[in-house]
Amino acid sequence: MSTTTYRAYAHPLWRRLLLTREAAVIALVVLVSMWAYSNVPYFGDTLTLTYLLLDTTTILLIALPMTLVVITGEIDLSVASVVGLSSATMGLLHEHGVGMALACVVALLVGVVCGALNGFLVGYVGLPSLAVTIGTLALYRGVAVGLLGTTAVTDFPKDWTSKASQVIGSSGIPSVMIVFAVLAVVFILLLHFTPFGRGVYDIGLSSEAATFSGVSAKRTKLVLFVLTGVVSALAGIYFTLRYGSARGDNATGLELQVIAAVLLGGVSIFGGRGRLPGVIAGVLLIGVISSALRLQGVTVNVISIIIGLLLVLSVISTPVLARLSDAAARRSRAKRSSAGPQTVVSQ
Amino acid sequence: MTTPQTPQTDTRPEAETHDEATTLLVEPSSLPPRERLLKTLLHSREISIFAVLVLVILAATVKNPGFVFSASGWRDLLLTPSMLLVLAAGQTVVIITRNVDLSVGSVLGLTAYMTGRLFIDHPGLPVISVFVAGLVVGAVLGLVNGLIVGWGKVPALVITLGTLYIYRGIVLTWAGSSQVNASDMPAGFLSLGTKQILSIPVLFVVAAVIVVAVGYVLQTARSGRELYAVGSDPDAAVLYGLPVRRRVIAAFVLSGALAGLAGVIYAARYGTVSSDAGTGIELQAVAAAVIGGVAIFGGSGTVWGAAIGAVLLVTINRALPMVGISDFWQQALVGALIIGAIVLDRVLANRQARTLIEARDEQ
Predict the structure, then answer these.
(1) What digits encode the pLDDT tens for the residues A130-166?
(2) Domain A25-314, what architecture?
(3) Which of A121, A290, A301 is the best residue to mutate to test the B interface, defined by the most B CB atoms within 10 Å of its own CB?
(4) Which of the residues A22, A191, B344, B347 could staple to A278 if both were Cys, CB 3.0 to 4.6 A apart?
(5) ipTM of the prediction
(6) How many CB pairs under 8 A join A and B?
(7) Are B256 and B138 in contact (CB under 8 A)?
(8) Domain limits of chain A?
(9) pTM value?
(10) What is residue A3's predicted lDDT score, i.e. its pLDDT?
(11) CA–CA distance, B50 with B311 (Å, rounded to integer)
């Protein structure tokens, strides 16, 4: 394992970057987009781009903190329920005549509380996150449905709901993408350019070793779950405004889509591996494929098969490629040793 | 494992070799078997969750005696959990091996729709054949999961999340927007959903037989015990020479087959099957196992616990309106229950660890 890592550094930087999973996913996004652009009618329209981005924004947002959580070797299945709860909170407050700005702030605070409970149970009590967040998935969704019942609050002010699907100039890019871009930059800086981010990888590779090198696994996990909660709540606010409807069952089942996108982007479910650009490309890949297929009249069923296949293939490709490259390395080693030690000396 | 038959070893008394070979951390209990059984039962993780179940049923019955003491109440009490019982039994076996099977909901949807389709395309088909078909198709889908997880050495969570989408996509493609209605299925099949033997619903009998069979294998059979070994430490299990890959694949095949059977039960119970049958039920199956004390990281837990967990999950849902809580809050309570169960597990595990450490220090 370690020899593979060191050997990877024997290649020049450009080659190392090209051979990563992220590069493969990004290349796939570009290829699929180019194919769709020239073969699928209306795919090149700005309206298509607008809807593609509007539809994937929720997943794009939540995928950012989720990536960090998965890199520490944990998982958060409660995100979609936090979306629902934040949406229900907004609806309830609006119904009782609370101003929109205050309702949004409270919804975000609800996200903080939800994330903090997850983070406390996982980080400080040390419970397995898979079990904890299956529990809070039911809990948060249950509170959301309990608060609103089957009613939907839909009479949000027009100037707020129109903001959610507003487009920047004539570019077709929704203005909500600015929020996403800012958050993406923040998370990329946090994960890839700060000691905190290094700590996230350390915890994923070996929680004990991380503790010994001064990284507080407990605190890091708490922070990450709180971040996931807040961003999910933010996604909930967006979801509510975009569809102009606050319901307790908003975004049900979204958690698995987010996880699928994160894993597709090259993050290892065992933790310690993965990068944010790959994840963003993973979300966009699913978005582009769904959008292109839908324009061609392909229904949701084929899209779900393709997403599933991509997920399975992306995961089994790693061990298969590792085995192939190991075999190649063994062959080249065998060739070198048969050529004799003189060649090595002469180098 | 195999006793050596050479005369040299035979000369040594067996008890003595045993004492030399192993120093036991905890002495075997000196209590008579009956008391020991009682003590084990009282200390078991399952009893706490069973107590909660009894409380829930009691509370609902006090408010509304018909919850248990009417013909329909009694029937629903046993009939409603049947499907989840079957799923939870399969899920438990997979979780014990330190894996998870998220694709069961999609497998259930596929076989449920297939059941209806079989009756429409082949009128006059014997009822037993759809059960066989459900089991076989489920087993094949489970085998796909098992082969990828076992041979690819990749996390089951990801693979079964992928197959969740793939299998659901297959159902969606197959069914489209059409659905199977009760009128499409023979009366002999649909009556299974309500038929009773000695006032016990047939479907519950099926589920109970499966739970007992799986529980018996896990508790006593060598292959069953090996599943625990695989789950508590896969590397050690390999070193010990256990057929880890085969056991994991077998666990997935079983989980798939039982999910397939649950699909047939779904068709018999509800009569109408659309392409989204069983969506999201995979998390309920996992939740039932977790509530019942099955450790999510494998190696511990019983089917008995998972079965009680499954009944509890379903019963709470029905009991809440009886005690005057809007059933909108049902899911929140289930969530609190799951978290309570894992916290309880942690407390019990800590206590046991302390006891073992004390026992060691005393020596």
Answers:
(1) 888 888 988 999 899 888 887 888 888 888 888 887 8
(2) Orthogonal Bundle (1.10)
(3) A301
(4) A22
(5) 0.77
(6) 155
(7) yes
(8) 25-314
(9) 0.80
(10) 46
(11) 10
